[in-house]
Amino acid sequence: MGGDHGPSVVLPGLAKVLERRADVQFVLFGRSDAVVPILETLPRLKAASTFHHCEVSVRMDDKPSQALRHGRRDSSMWKAIEAVKNGDADVCVSAGNTGALMAMAKVCLKTLGPIERPAIAAIWPTIKSECIVLDVGATIGGDAQQLVDFAILGSAMAHAVFQLERPKVGLLNVGVEEIKGQEQVKDAGQMLRDAGLDSMDYTGFVEGDDIGKGTVDVVVTEGFSGNIALKTAEGTAKLIAEYLRDAMSRTLMAKIGYLFARSAFSRLREKLDVRKVNGGVFLGLSGLVVKSHGGTDAEGIAAAVELGYDMVRRRLLDTIRADLDRYHARPQIQAEPAAAAAAAGQ
Amino acid sequence: MGGDHGPSVVLPGLAKVLERRADVQFVLFGRSDAVVPILETLPRLKAASTFHHCEVSVRMDDKPSQALRHGRRDSSMWKAIEAVKNGDADVCVSAGNTGALMAMAKVCLKTLGPIERPAIAAIWPTIKSECIVLDVGATIGGDAQQLVDFAILGSAMAHAVFQLERPKVGLLNVGVEEIKGQEQVKDAGQMLRDAGLDSMDYTGFVEGDDIGKGTVDVVVTEGFSGNIALKTAEGTAKLIAEYLRDAMSRTLMAKIGYLFARSAFSRLREKLDVRKVNGGVFLGLSGLVVKSHGGTDAEGIAAAVELGYDMVRRRLLDTIRADLDRYHARPQIQAEPAAAAAAAGQ
Asked: Which chain B residues in 63-82 lie under 8 Å from chain A, judged by CB atoms?
């Protein structure tokens, strides 16, 4: 039911996934009057889906606290998250209200054992390929331990999504002042160096311009600066696109040049296509949740669902549990992995 | 002596300023063996300049504390700042080590009366025109009062540089979480609303993508997130330029298109030319200091100097003193402006 266009965009998006991931199965939650008529026009999708009518749907402008209060357990959003908790689904994907989705996911799925606060991870285009940035908005502030946990979560995701054995991880910091950066960032750096984890290659501090350069595979920061970085990058991309459009339409010569180079511009547009990297991944919970951009189209929805699908196939949650166990059991006596995983999953 | 290329770029930059601001006069500090030979080739510049030989120069990789310790009062950087303090110069411009420059400026010039920590303000291109973002790296963290002070400093600079009567001011924040954003940002917003200052139009919170949109004339934040935003925007611009270059050189048609649209591409390059908006302005000190990018060319140096020149001409420091007085004297009995300004200048 979520996003700017609801089922009219979400369902065609799922139909696209089905063309590319033939074994996928969908459990759909929403109002039947909105979903069923469209589902009827997509027979292949209908055959691969189970539909559950939900009277209530969370609105895009509901406050998270409202979404939690008013009949929350009847809403399509809650039911979709609950399906992950109950094992009826492997991953929940929503294009709805981010704050409500995160609040419900925290209440329903709970955080993994040692994790205090979950993070939202974004996939970011770089000159080399792509990187993961987290947290981009679930937290404000956070201590060194939290940043270390984010590094573990992010490197596990890079392992699953980019199929890297030992992803390069950097802590986002600033380089201007004498005492460079925040205390907690420095402490987190020391902790990661001391831990010497097999699962990641901690390379030290990175600055804002390193994100787009692709200096590392995973950029770790707390949610305030991470969200500002993400939105600033989006704003900068729009600014440059606007400049380019303006420059290309200003003279006849430029317009002719544009015609010749049209395929090159399509290529550029494709490279910068945010739909391809659509999907904020909620990490640190005992189940997987992917938040799609609300304003995206069917292709964007498909990308978010496929991201979820691929993370499930590559057993992201198992990797996260094992990496967290290994880190947090480190100073003490090594806990029995199976028991720790079960405790973490509670 | 500062920057990647020293006097070989700085002096030609000053010569450019002289062509455009005929009444400017320069007080130059540096090693005579590096400066004098180049100055001899620029007779007009030589005639408009006073040169002071300084044996010591701060290195680009000196730590600020080192720069303050070792013979600091003999260095060209210190002497240039001191010239502002002594009234021998109206503004100090340096392409040198930012951390050392800020540390020396704080020690030599001191902060203005009620200001606890100075900020670095950057001019940022927007879809509409330009805006000012501060702090981009002088501080880490900061309380609500500090953000309010930054708002006053930034709006005074927008008044001087953009010649706006009542600049629009926004506080940088995030919009994802229930309890939106940092406590200190919320408190600062309340304080600015309560103050109802004539000198600015406080419009509320803005997010990262609002910077490039030009939603406001002044974006206020503490230096950690401000520096990350600035560097992330730089990185994104480089990323897109790289994509564009790649797309335009990939096929014959694209190359032909590029030839036709060459002037449009020059126009774009000009729009994105960081040299034009070169210059971080140190605000909150009892004198003006402009930090030029170290890697810039003569045109960039000229832009930084002209920014300083224009701020002096438009009496930025007087505006800042008056605005700070008005704000800080607000709850108490109105202080005598002249006396307060004198006290602030100590």
From this structure: 63-65
